[in-house]
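Narrative of activities, Objective 1.

The group set out to show that a structural description can be obtained from nothing but a protein's sequence at a throughput compatible with the screening campaign. Below is one input-output pair from the validation batch, recorded exactly as produced.
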Amino acid sequence: MGQARPRPARLADKLLEIRRKLGLSQNEMISRIGLSGELTQNRISAYELGEREPPLYVLLAYARAIGAGAYLEHLVDDQMDLPEKLPASSGKEKIKKPRTAK
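Output recorded for this entry:
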């Protein structure tokens, strides 16, 4: 059997920090990352509380939501902090939906 990979210890805090710095509610964050039909407020809450770990496509959407210069590694590397300044929340930016495998 394969070994389970370690979970990033700071991930939940970083996800919450992103949403708060963008000035968004959990439902607004779902819309911002373009996953309205796929995520629920309860799921976002579970990610922010560290009860669940988001799948990679959700982490990528978060990384894109915080803008240019931020990478997925900012989220998953416990040794890295988020960028100091996150983009302002205008509500007009949309993140591309992930492609579904065929």
